[in-house]
Amino acid sequence: MAGSEPPMSPNLKPIATRPRGASAADMEAGGHSPPSSSGIITPKGRGGEVQSESPTMGSDSSSPWRRFFRGGSRYPASDVDSFSNSPRNLMGFSPKAGSSASASRVSTPVKRKNRDKDYSSKDYGSGQINAYPPAAAGNPAAVAGMMTLAEELLTKKGLSLKDLQEDQEEYADTGEKEAIPKNKRPVTKHWNWLGLAIFLYYCAAAVYYFYIRSTRTLNMGYLGYGVLVLLIEIISSTATFGYAILLVKYSKSRRTKGLPIPKKGQQPDLDNLKFHVRVLIPCYKESCELVKLTVLGALKAPLPKDTLRTVYLCDDGKDPQKEEMVRELNAEWGCLEYVSGRKRDPNGETNGKSNNLNHCLQNVIYKDYYPQNAQGPKIPTSEVMVVFDADMVAKPNFFTKILEVMLDDDCALCLTPQGFNNVDAQSDIFNNLNLSFWEYMLPGTDALGYIACTGTNFCLRCYPLADCGWFPTFTITEDYALGMLMKAKGYKAGYLNEYLAIGEAPEEIRNIFRQRSRWCKGQMQVLFSRYCPLLDTGLTLGMRLLYTSVTWCYVTNTVAVPCSVLVPFIALVFGVYPLVLNRDFALAATLYYTSSTLVTMYCTNRKHMKPLWFCIVSCHLLWFTYAKAQLNVLWKKITKKTVVFKSTKKKGEDDGRTGKKKRRFCAVPQNVGDMEGTLDAWVLVCSFSISMITAIVGAFQMIDKPYTAQGDFRWFLALSIFWSVYNMIPPALFIFYCYNKGQLFEDFCSFCMTLSFMVGIGGIVCTWLVPDDYNLGQVLNVSLQFFEAQRSGKVPRISNTPWRGNSGLWDSVLLPNGKNYSLLGGWYDDGGMLKLSYTTAFTVSMLSWAYYEFKGGYRSSGNVDFGANTIRWGADYLMKVSVTNITSAGASMQPIFVAQVGDMARDKLYWGSPERSTIPRPATYLSAARPGTDAMAMSSAALASAAVAIQEESLQVADVYLQKAIVLYQLAQRWRGYYAKYVESGKMYPSVSMYDDLAYAAIWIYIATGDENYLNDAIVFYDQTVSAEGHVNPNPYMFNYENVVPALDLLLYKATGDQFYKKNVQDFVKTWMNTKSRTGDIFYTNKNLAKAYPYGTLQHTANAAFYTMVAAKNVMDNKFMLYACWARNQIGYMLGDAGRSYVTGYGSVQPMKTPHKAASCPPVDVTDCTWESAYYTTDPNYWQLRGGLVGGPDDSDAWSDDRDMNNPANAVSLLNSAGFSAAMAALVDRDINMAKCQQGNGFIQTIMLKAKGQPDAAGQRWWEGV
């Protein structure tokens, strides 16, 4: 009868509270008339008419009873008047518009934010809802069979329904517990003090590491490449930081028994229901058997007291088999509905699961509630829903546990972890990622207030879901987006870390790749949508970063893994390195990587270590999958196309691929499955191949040449090998996994885990074993300090050598006019107390040349003033010894040039400090009657070069130097002769050529003035020295004070561009660099020190190193690094590459007993300085002399540290240190270090050099030719 209310028995209970397995007789005893034979109710739309054969249903479409009885449920008529608290309201059936139900209690969030919900207005169509009432006659056999099936399911999952029921019943009998006090909530939050310590340690280590990386390791020659690798490291560290911060706090389950279940026979209080649980099980193409297990799990799990349940099977595949299954199960349980018939978008949907769930919620359950019906009532807080994926089976205590958390009305969502019965913690290289997520990440995010939702096994209050626009459909990962939207609206959630449902993880590799790709795509969709968490003003800054970090991890993984694979490959094969290895980096890397390991491997159970290590492995294996997913989303975003949802294939699922399989050249491994043409697996094979080739190439290079030229093991190659082996492990596991997942694979996993830690430790050890490169700027400063220690006269109060005082204060010369002329100042030549103008002049010219050519080296090392003052100290003395303005009675007299101050014989007999010396110090000078062209011309060159060098610092002083240089040059031309004939020190520093000195002076005056006359003079004098004096040099390739012809070639080529001079320069450089020579003018020791025959010392090698740097800059056509690295190697030998330093005051093993009077003498208040106390003692010198280069080792690299003043190998001198300091300035200016010199020296160059039969060439790039 239309519009009439059907008579109903008052003792009839709702189907959710009806005793299970009720027979037809029981129902008839209750006055219930049987339904129609079909039992199918098909609504035609919202408010549409429905035809029914049931005599108890009214035909009035506007009657609330029609909606009230949807699904065959029948309620007593007495419930009609109290609808707001009645079962009909709780079941989700709407009253008439404007009824009192609109005042139902609703959870109020902390804050609200109005958002457009365009994604919730999708038309799902009318659909089809089938409900099946209990069978008219009971079928005990069928019931028993289903109970057995459920019991088998629980047994398979390791559960016992009987034990749980007994425990719950015992708990229920102990009291009438209504709610858990707040101080005894099932989930509590705590600080993790150990996690906080690890987090702080990681932050400090990361800051220090990246400071060192950016300031001390980028000087490798390819700044762009180094910066790129550094940026990738920084990007990668952000993911670790995001994970580390989650260790600071955590939420913890108190492991309560859960809410009490009803006593036996106790029925729910329908007027005071705590919850009505809507269980939604979305499915598509899963097998009916798999879905049935999930449905039975949801039905069999006991409910707490005063709780109703309705299970909805949301079938998007419209499977008749599933429909029949629901019909059969509903005959027993009576609270199960089959929901299907949704209209699917023929062009594909972004999220079919969300659309499926929303269809059930919007068109079936809450069709007439707000917000679906603007005039309808709000959804009560007692309305909660639970979602189970089609393969997730609830444990018996699922509802009693999760609803205990939901007792708090402020809790909008409670999430539980997903357990998998097919994930082996000892061998699953993909799915163990879940353990890190459930056990360590989510407890941390929950404690920080983050709302997480993972798509299944969660309980959600329905009104907040509706307030957020239902399940998001704009992204594949609706769970991630839903949690973010709920947080933005101010809702709260909880995470119950108890495994209350069990399912199956994908095992076939293709399904794993598809699942992870879907996760990545979905989160990238959110990032590129208008719901981007970074731009969400409803989120706090911390929450914005936290939600973004989840997506950001995919980006970091995509760039970090291929970089990690390619860097060692590029280093060993092509010889291009991204960073400089030094002690600072070793310390920073040790701290950083140990802290990173503590973060990633932090665990509360040692059994978790291997699964956590598998997380690292899986990240390595999935980088290409993530990269494809990100590019796919970006491309779809640009082209405005839809990213289509692809579900993970479950066991028994029909994937639609039928027919005869294609024949393949080789069988597909059993654990791979059909990869559908994707390249993911092949990329991992390529990754393994690249790493293996890298390791083999590195091993070949180590076997071929295990030591450097200085005898150091090539640990940097070992580091790259360890790195490549570490990169081989994940793809090796993948390849093994494709073919075998048994015990053998488990053992292989254990081996690989151990190996990964061993090679990681080995790599850290290698960073410490690689010899630390020298701070060349510091060495330049040290070299200049030697000239401070050699000062004579009044020394400045502030000095790097405070142990030196005033000395030589009475040095003077008696002029021809009878006046005494002070010679205060200058440098002592060596460890004695002689002041020699010739060696001082050559020293000044070398320092000035270096300052002129490589001033940037002084500037970058902070030695500009130090260098200029050093030059001026020597030049000022040369100005003083050039006495050119002598008058007597108003008449000019012949000038003189003082060549020596001090007596050699007396100086050798005295061993004491210059400050306390009282021995006579006569002066020896040159004049027209005692000519010394060579010494005077060299002094002229020194003053002219000094003028060129310091003109920026003091133009006035430079002009004074230049004028004196011109005067001396003119005098040297008139006074022809060799200074050694008249000066005692000529025996120690003989000179047999003068034209080269005149040419040297002329070319420097030309550089200072630009006067072509001086250039012409230089050319003329050059020709004269070659023709008249070429035969007197024992070795034309020895560049020193006695032979400056090589310097003339350099300077004249720069001035004229004449190829003749260029060829001479090239010959000089190539002769010194011929590392094959063991005899001849230039030969090499076993430790690759280049020496000049017959009496070459480190002085000549240092001069050649400086010369080569100038030639590489101004003359040589290309391959600058080849020449610069040769110079670096020679200077490196002097600094310690050979096992000891030959520079005083520098290096761990340095000369300590050089014959130096001032350094060996203790102060007066300690003891007297005598031969016995200062010279013959075996103790080191009392004071540390810094920057002095000794003569050096013999031809066999042997050298002994002793205080023998007659052995030039142990002596320090101006000439030794002049070229050394100049070479240091050049290396610092061009920023040459060993890292740069190793660039390009890879496998390719080694093979090319061997093919051509040529020796190693440090610094030469393979692409520049050999």
From TrEMBL:
One short Pfam name that applies is Glyco_trans_2_3
Which compartments does it reside in?
A: Membrane
Judging by the UniProt lineage, the source's domain of life is Eukaryota
Could you list the residue ranges that cross the membrane?
191-211, 223-248, 552-579, 585-604, 681-703, 715-739, 751-770
Question: Is Transferase among the key words of this record?
Answer: yes
Domain Glycosyltransferase 2-like, chain residue ranges per copy: 386-574
Q: Which reaction does it catalyse?
A: Endohydrolysis of (1->4)-beta-D-glucosidic linkages in cellulose, lichenin and cereal beta-D-glucans
Quote the InterPro entries the UniProt record gives. Answer: 6-hairpin_glycosidase_sf, 6hp_glycosidase-like_sf, Glyco_hydro_9, Glyco_trans_2-like, Glycosyltr_2/OpgH_subfam, Nucleotide-diphossugar_trans
Q: Which UniProt keywords apply?
A: Carbohydrate metabolism, Cellulose degradation, Glycosyltransferase, Membrane, Polysaccharide degradation, Transferase, Transmembrane, Transmembrane helix
EC category: hydrolase
The EC number(s) given in the record are 3.2.1.4
Q: Would the keyword Ligase turn up in this protein's UniProt record?
A: no
* Membrane topology qualifier: Multi-pass membrane protein
Q: Region Disordered: what ranges? A: 1-126
Q: Would you identify the family this protein belongs to, as annotated?
A: Belongs to the glycosyl hydrolase 9 (cellulase E) family.
What protein name applies here?
cellulase
Query: Which species is listed as the source?
Result: Tetradesmus obliquus
